[in-house]
Design brief:
Layout (H helix, E strand, L loop, with lengths): L1 H9 L1 E6 L6 E3 L11 E6 L4 E4 L4 E4 L2 H5 L4 H4 L30 E4 L14 H6 L2 H10 L23 E10 H4 L4 E3 L4 E3 L13 E4 L22 E4 L6 H8 L12 E4 L8 H13 L4 H10 L2 E2 L6 E2 L2 H8 L22 H7 L16
Parallel strand pairs: 11-12
Antiparallel strand pairs: 1-2, 1-10, 3-4, 3-7, 5-6, 6-7, 8-9, 13-14
Length: 366
């Protein structure tokens, strides 16, 4: 959190570009030893290669799959359901890996060099960095392991394939694909293969960025769409869980293109001696007895910390949050409760916006 505040104060961000894939890695106060950019391993039925998420043009749905004439290509993988993207178009498939599934059919841009992406190393360069060892490990693991390399893209006779339909096999961080050779004591064998330049060999960069800060108090925080926000700093804690979810959902909602970081800042971490003495005296003077405390628990409304439902008293809310029987909160991860299919929250989970209507060329609606 302290680094993010400094980033907004100085209007620059620190990080490194990966020498392998060219991905940017933000410095967040920890040592940058390996690239965290997600790479996808895909196959076109003949070649298996790695791609960046930016190369994904769209996911292949049922309508496009049925229009493909090549029978082998139709059997390559499975189409992507519209419901999985929660109403977003198939072109938004590459934004988040939460919607990715193994065996998905996706359409990618296989041009290299690409006008917006780093040109890849040649096979001779990869041979110097241990690609032969990588291929050997892949054969021994039958392609189910973590090893692969960011090699040249397969091209056709024209040397350029702008649209290629491929099947998604796996995805993981770039540094996991290109692991360093080391001895694994648990498996009692050598693992890893890559011995070329890595993120540790790259100097830290400071990039100028325009940072916009929006200051809001309670009276101006209603009815806003803050899907463009990347960080939320709460200057005082919010005890009401329902209100906290309402405030944070202003930014973390449909339309945001990246994760949202939410931090609560404790402005006064320590009190001076005089203030601490006054606070202690006030607590001792206003401390209720056991009987008054029980009355307060039974008369004060409370909110469940998991499903954010309101209850008449704190005692009832605590019983609802407990995990002792099957009638407790079904959103508590430690609970064994069964979800009520007729509850309003279950209905909300089943509601999905209608799929977009795809009109082929030559068809008209009057």
């Amino acid at each position: 959190m302290s680094y993010d505040l400094g980033r907004f104060r100085h209007n620059y961000k620190e990080g490194k570009y990966c020498p392998i894939c060219g991905g940017w890695n933000d410095y967040i106060g920890r040592n940058l030893s390996s690239c965290r950019r997600q790479l996808l391993e895909v196959t076109d039925g003949v070649h298996t290669f790695l791609i960046e998420p930016e190369r994904i043009k769209r996911a292949v749905g049922n309508v496009e799959l049925n229009s493909i004439a090549d029978a082998n290509l139709r059997q390559l993988g499975k189409p992507v359901e519209m419901t999985r993207l929660q109403g977003a178009s198939l072109t938004k498939y590459g934004i988040s890996n939460k919607s990715w599934r193994v065996n998905d059919l996706i359409c990618v841009d296989a041009r290299d060099p690409h006008c917006l992406m780093k040109s890849r190393w040649e096979e001779d360069t990869w041979a110097e960095y241990g690609s032969a060892r990588c291929i050997e490990l892949r054969v021994n693991e039958d392609g189910e392991g973590r090893n692969n390399y960011f090699g040249p893209l397969p091209n056709d006779d024209s040397g350029c394939r702008e649209e290629v339909i491929v099947r998604l096999m796996k995805w993981q961080a770039c540094g996991v694909f290109h692991s360093r050779p080391r001895w694994d004591a648990r498996r009692k064998r050598e693992v890893g293969w890559y011995n070329g330049p890595s993120l540790e060999n790259v100097d830290m960069l400071k990039l100028k960025e325009d940072t916009f800060i929006l200051l809001l108090d309670a009276s101006l925080s209603h009815g806003l769409d803050l899907s463009f926000v990347t960080h939320i700093f709460l200057l005082e804690p919010i005890d009401d869980a329902a209100l906290l979810e309402q405030v944070t959902s202003r930014a973390h909602r449909l339309g945001c293109t990246a994760p949202v970081t939410i931090d609560t800042i404790n402005v006064w971490q320590t009190l001076d001696t005089a203030t601490r003495a006054v606070a202690k005296r006030l607590r001792s003077d206003g401390r209720p007895n056991v009987h008054d405390d029980e009355i307060a628990r039974n008369s004060t409304a409370a909110v469940c910390e998991f499903c954010y439902r309101s209850f008449e008293s704190l005692t009832i809310a605590e019983i609802h949050e407990s995990t002792c029987d099957r009638k407790t909160c079904d959103r508590n991860p430690d609970s064994t409760a069964m979800a009520d299919p007729y509850h309003l929250s279950s209905v909300y989970r089943d509601i999905r916006p209608p799929a977009p209507m795809i009109v082929q060329e030559g068809h008209r609606f009057m």
